[in-house]
């Protein structure tokens, strides 16, 4: 199976909200979520439900990776 990862970077010193558009999804999906920041060194955190068109909140000074299920 093939999984797709989507890294999002926030270089700001405060959290940011980003618009996220995922094409080709039949609906909302649960994505495994990995966080790289001052308190998380490439750690899996709670899964995130992503809608085909929506927004995500990115922690300050972080890289967040959403791993989408195959399909």
Short synopsis of the structure:
The protein is an all-beta fold and 71 residues long.
Q: What are the SSEs and their pairings?
A:
Blueprint: E1 4-10, E2 16-21, E3 29-37, E4 40-50, E5 53-58, E6 62-68
Antiparallel strand pairs: 1-6, 2-5, 3-4, 3-6
Structural account:
By secondary structure, this protein is mostly beta strands. 0% of the residues lie in helices and 65% in strands. Strand 3 and strand 4 form a beta hairpin. The radius of gyration is 12 Å and the shape is globular.
> Order of strands side by side in the largest beta sheet?
1-6-3-4
Question: In this structure, how is the largest beta sheet organized?
Answer: 4 strands, antiparallel
Helix segment tally: 0
Report the C-alpha radius of gyration, rounded. Answer: 12 Å
In percent, how helical is the residue content?
under 10%
Mean pLDDT: 90
Shape estimate: globular
Order of secondary-structure elements: EEEEEE
Query: Helix- and strand-based class?
Result: mainly beta
Give unreliable regions as ranges: none
* Residues in β-strands, percent: over 45%
> So what's the oligomer here?
single chain
Give the number of DSSP strands.
6
Report, as a whole number of angstroms, the end-to-end distance: 9 Å
List its salient traits.
71 residues, mainly beta, 4-stranded antiparallel sheet, two-stranded antiparallel sheet, 6 strands, 65% strand, globular
